[in-house]
Amino acid sequence: MDLLGFIIILVKVLVVFAATMLTVLVMIYLERRVSAFMQGRLGPNRVGPQGLLQPIADGIKFMMKEDIVPAGADKPIFILAPAILLIPALMTFAVIPFGSDITLFGRQIPLQVADVNVGILYVLALTSIGVYGIVLAGWSSNSKYSLLGGLRSSAQLISYELAMGLAVVSIILLSGSLKLNDIVADQQGYLFSWNVFKQPLAFIIFLVAVYAETNRLPFDLSEAEQELVGGYHTEYSSIKFAMFFMAEYANMITAAALTVTLFFGGWDFPLVDESSLGILGTVLSVCSFILKMGFFLFLFIWVRWTFPRFRYDQLMKLGWKVMLPLALFNIFITAGYLTVRALV
Amino acid sequence: MIENYFPIFIVFIVAAGFTFVSLIMTHILGPRITNPVKLMPYESGVDPLAETRIRFSIRFFIIALLFIIFDIEIIFLYPWAVVFKDFLSFGSFIFFEMVIFLAILVFGYVYVWRNGALDWE
In chain A, which residue's Cα lies nearest the Cα of B17? Predict the structure, then answer.
C-alpha cells in the first residue's frame, strides 16, 4: 500500500469517526428537545443558541465528576464493561457505504471506510459483542438492580438477534452477496427496486428487532426506570455513565444506517444515475443517505413518546412466538418465489 | 483480501484510543472523596439486604441455550442464501434441500414451544 492510499484511509476513518461523534451529540440534544416539544415543554435552551451546546457542557461535566466504584464491585470488569460496549458501537459504521464513488487525485475512492466482503456478518458480530458489555456491567456492579437489568437486557438482545438475522437472510437471498456495496447496487434503478417494496415483511421484522437491539422504547425493559432505577448502569457515574449513552446513540446511528442500506437503497437517490454525474452525483448520494438516515433517527424519538413499554413476558412472546416464525415463513416464501421464477 | 480489513484495524485504534483517553481523563480530573456510605450499592436508600448475587429465573438460562441452537442454524442459512441464485441454474435441488433443513428446525421449534420453554407466565 502506498502513502497516498494510507492517507486516504486515515482521512476517511477520522471523518467518519468525527461525523459519528457529532451525530451522537446532535441526537442527545434532539432527543431532549424533541421530547420536550412533544410534551409541551421547552427542553434545554440555555447553553448556546437554542441550547445547542448543551451536550458539550454535559460532556465536560461528566469528565469533572467523581468516578465511583461501589464496594464489592469487581473492579477490572466494572471499568472495562463500558469500554467493551462503546468500542464495537463506534466501529460498526466502518463497513456501511454512505455515498457513490468519488474521483480525487486521479483515483477512484469508494465512500466507505472498509469494503469487507462479509459486511453484514461484520455488523452482526460487532453488535453481539455489545451484549458482553451490558451483562458484565450488570454483573460486576454488585447491585441487585444492575444484575436484573443486565440479565433482562442480554436475554432480550439475544432473542431479537434471531429474528433480525433471519430477516437479513431474505435480503441476502435477493442480492446473492453479504457485501453491503452489492446490496446497495442491487437496489438501484427504478423507484420500486428498493428492498422495502420487495420484502415488506422482512422490513417490519427488522425494524422491530432494531428497536429491541438498541434497547429503545417500547423495548427498554433493561432500563425501565420505574422498576429497575437505571438497569445495568445504576451504579455507574462520571464518564463511564456517559459512555453507556454514547454507545446507545452510536448503536442507533448504525441501526438507522443499516436499515437504510438494506431496505431503502443505501445512498441511492431514486431515478438518478449518480455515477454519471461526477462530483455532483456524489454530493447528491451523500445528502440522500443523510436524509434517509435522519428520518430513521427521528423515528426512534417519535416512537419513544408514542408507544408504552412492553411487559417482559409480552416481549419474549413477541420475539419467540411471533417474529421468529414470521421470519422463517418469509424466507420460505422468498426462496420459493425465486425458485418458481427461475424454473417455470 | 486481508488488506480490506486494514481500515478496520485503524478504526479500532481510534475508537479504543478515544474510549481509554476519556476513562483516564475522568480519573485525573474528577474529585476523589469517598466514604463507606457513598460506596454502598444503591438499593432505594436503605442498607442492602442479603447477597447481591441473587438466584434468578431458570428461564434466562433456557433462553440462552435456545439462542445458541437457533443462532447456529441461522449461521448455516447465510452461505446457503449467498449461493442460492447461482445454484438455481442446476434445478430446484437447493430449494428442497433447505426446505428439509427448515423442516427439522421447525420441528425442534414446535417441540420447544409445546414443552413450554417459551412461556414466561
Answer: A87
